[in-house]
Amino acid sequence: MPTRRTLVSASILDADLSNLARDSRKALRSGADRLHLDVMDGHFVPNITFGPGLIKRLRRIGKQPFDAHLMISEPGRYMDQFIDAGCDSITFHVEVDEPIEPTLLKIRKAGRQAGLAIKPATPLSALEPYRELLDIVMVMTVEPGFGGQSFMKEAATKILPAHQIFRGRSDGMPAGQVHVDGGVSRQSAELCGGLAAEVLVVGSTLWKKDRDIAREIGLIKALADEGYRNGDGKGQRAVPHDEWVPFATLPRSIGRRLLNEIEAAGVPVIQIRAERAPGAEGPRDYELLIPAGCEDAAAERFGEARQLARGEAEARRHAPQDRTRRDPNVRGGTA
């Protein structure tokens, strides 16, 4: 299976703000490559979050990259504080009403990566004057300000052409990255990967109640990488988006073991309840579904494991059933 290409920057906007250090460590242990810090001032966007003081304290959790996304009206005024707080990259909005170039130069002079974000309605041409100073272009696929919004496919059309910002620059300039921020989840990851996004900002979908964060991050990375491979980084797919095919039908516990083995190799898997014939008895089977583009590779690598799992399931179905049942009126007895 191929090496991971897509990086996940975990947004802590919807994490437990009373214990950000704990949740930040949890996201990083679960496979996030960096932390995304959404700073809002209540003026540029209608929400207020936190500032450089909190980021500086959070910096104590380790050396993992911190991506600061400043949704504030005067980024130049506060830039020294965010640099001092330990941000590794700092992205602010091209729509701010102040000179942009001096702030980008200050970020780069401090040895940090400098980025500009664009709202859904802002054309990519707004970034052209700053192409020589950019390490990051952040394509917003929601209106900035609040977490939990729905991914805007029409805004995603900027992802692929955003790479042109980094082409044709002066000799010696390092390659930049295109980040996608807003509504990114397993439903939109393949599309973003197919459009060659390098970093996906993933937020609210990670912090849902009882969500397995490690599995969610693994699925998002795998789907984004699959989209990139199928589309050759040009947004085109060899198979329709979101097309999943059955890989095996097994009892839940047996299927879960096979699912874990396949996911460990980087292939996304979903386990759902299988259709059941009317009047059927016994434990219900569950289907393992994988992306159609992974089917041949998964069959080659996990075909033997699938056969063994099917044999175990068949043996379990034909095993003698213990038909005794406990009598509720007799302590320790059976009916």
Offer a quick outline of the entry.
The protein is of the alpha/beta class. The protein has ten helices and eleven strands.
Q: Can you offer a commentary on this structure?
A:
This protein folds into 2 domains: 225 residues, Aldolase class I (TIM Barrel); 74 residues. Helix content is 32%, strand content 19%. It contains 10 helices and 11 strands. An 8-stranded parallel β-barrel has the order 1-2-3-4-5-6-7-8, surrounded by 4 helices. Strands 9-11-10 form a 3-stranded antiparallel sheet. Helix 7 links the parallel strand 7 and strand 8. The N and C termini lie far apart (54 Å). The C terminus is likely disordered.
User: Which superfamily, in CATH terms, is the homologous superfamily of the largest domain?
Assistant: Aldolase class I
Counted by DSSP, the helix tally is 10
Order of helices and strands: EHEHEHEHEEHHEHEHEHEEH
**Lateral strand order in the biggest sheet:** 1-2-3-4-5-6-7-8
Domain count: 2
Describe the global form: elongated
